[in-house]
Predict the structure of Exosome component 7.
Amino acid sequence: MVDVLLSDAEKTFIIHGIQDNLRDDGRGCEDYRHMEIETDVVSSTSGSAKVRLANTEILVGVKAELGEPSSGKPDKGRLEFFVDCSANATPEFEGRGGEDLALEISNMLTRAYDCPKCLDLGKLCVIKGQQCWVLYVDILLLECGGNLFDAASVAVKAALYNTCIPTVTVSQDEGHVDIELSDDPFDVQHLDVTSAPCIVTLSKIGHSHVVDASQKEEACCLARLMMGVTEKGTVTALKKEGSGSLDPSSVEEMMETGKRVGQALNKSLMEVLCLEEQKGKKKEKTGFLR
């Protein structure tokens, strides 16, 4: 979380507005800011996406490479998350300033996706116990304007939706195994990310809670609850942060809000991704690194 200094009067104004379901930018407590999503923005990756949520901007690239499956899941592929905080995003990220935040985001995404029903990683297995597809998900924070976890999860889901994995042919001859990758750019498989989770962060401010907190609202928040939520409302991960406390009734209320908002967010995201895919080459591209 990037620190923003506010006066007591500013904090009081924000807190009282939230209690009346009217935030300083005109939103209600369960409303997200305007979000822009673009896929296929980096040509050197297997899949990519860029998300802009108000002043927060995140770029995600996915690289699919053959590797060994984990010992505990020999018949499944793997997901590896890496987060980098650009020093251009905020002066606080200069040097090693963003390492703790990068690790927090990476760990939360790993926990959110560590659910058998999120992604069918079995389809990424090539040879049981020997070879599988490993998806390296690289997340770059380009600009910080609040609510980094949610924006990162949306960008990750969009990039995975855009990921193309080459078709693999496995042949055996006298005990020797040959793996051949198709070089046809159209002979690929795609992941079904319909059940992949999005992270919803609920910030407790005063006696109320909000989603998609801005930087000013984050400065008024003493405790927040982060949830990995699927399109069916299943909670795949839950984490509490902050020095403030949350009573059981508040947690229950925040979780109900998180599930409701998470379902709507997943539904809207999938609709946008399907619509963009239907446009094909006709879609307007504003990305970079092409």
Remarks:
- DSSP finds five helices and 14 strands in the chain.
- The first strand starts at residue 35 and ends at 39.
- Residues 231 and 267 are 6 Å apart (CA to CA).
- The chain has one domain: 8-282.
